[in-house]
Amino acid sequence: MRKRAIAAAALAATLSLVVAGCTGTGSGSSSSGSTITYWASNQGTSLDNDKQVLTPVLNDFTKQTGIKVKLEVIGWNDLQTRIQTAVTSGQGPDVLNIGNTWAASLQATGAFLPFGDSEMKAIGGKDKFVKTALETGGASGKTPTSVPLYGLAYGLYYNKAMFQAAGVQPPTTWEELVTDAKKLTTGGKYAFSLAAGSYTENAHFAFINSAQNGGEWFDDKGDPTFTSSENVDGIKRYLDLMQTDKVVNTSNAQYDNGVQAVNDFATGKVAMILSQNNADSSIVANGMKADQYGVVPFPAPEGGKPVASHVAGINLSVFKNTKNKDAALKFVKFMTSEDTQTTLGKPFSTLPVLNGAKAVFTDNADEAATFQKIYNEMSKPLPLVPAEDQFENTVGKAMNDMFAKIATGSTVSDSDIKAALQTAQDQVKQSLGG
């Protein structure tokens, strides 16, 4: 997901500044004929493309309900600032998209409508949502202040021809993955391309690899537990793809987003990448045909937990001070309906967040089923705490530094990883006042 973490402490500090009754127009009791404002995140190839995709969908909503929607599509680089400003001033939209990992941080501001029993009933009931997707709606044990809209998940993409030439099958365990990768690293080509300079992707795979070990990054009180053996081992395993297994080019330490890795894969420079399902359009756009690659879940070590992804995606929130609560909830119900999920799933390359709904982002039935299984059954939410953004920032950047160290020929040991995680943990504790 293209996102930036929101600073929880800064947002929480704005809570006292939020004023009531500044968003929207009209009445909360009679929604027909009202107008709501909607901030959509950039999901497609451009802001204009998103407007073209969403406009007919929103027109259908207006025809069905009489409620007009004032749409604004906002890029990910700007969305966090816009939300923070809206929280501070109270001058925000009625409904907005958020990165689902922001949910607990935003919930802590008190600026967003809780989806209690009556609100859930108004949007079709909580049971319609995939359980793990709904869990991303806010901090554990609290009434959610967002609901799932678009789903995303990581998968292991592999080049079928390269695998056949090397005489290997798609791996089902980490041990098989490393063995296969070594066979595929030959003739000046590497098996893997990683976004090893992207702090967000590094944080994601720190989380996933640790989760396969049964690790956690925060305790029940929300305090960081970064230095556990499960976390250290998970990071070491991932770093060793470059360091000891040597199946990743050291130049990948400079790859600061997933685009470079996808390009390497699509142009035949590597046999495997780890990417979310919205990479398909970029892979095909770079010249690779859909039948030339396959996807399997990111494998865990033998005996590990089958966690192949975090629950990635986009959620919908409603500002608490909206004057159009009924209309806003009708809109949330519409956007999370199976019909709308199907309509938007293909152009935005997303997975449905509803139980029983089928993925339509690709015409490849096997790939669609694989990603749906990963999302529904093999994913785990990132830490549901207000300091989640700080976890991504501190741990992800520590991994950037460690990959950079490996790329220059230095060695990163378990003790080095633990020391880096201790520094990250201390930074988070300090920000939490500990």
Automatic annotation (TrEMBL):
CDD domains: PBP2_TMBP_like. Keywords: Signal. InterPro entries: Bact_solute-bd_prot1, SBP. It comes from the Bacteria. It holds the Pfam family SBP_bac_1. Residues 1-20 form the signal peptide. The keyword Signal applies. This is Sugar ABC transporter substrate-binding protein. It comes from Leifsonia sp. NPDC080035.
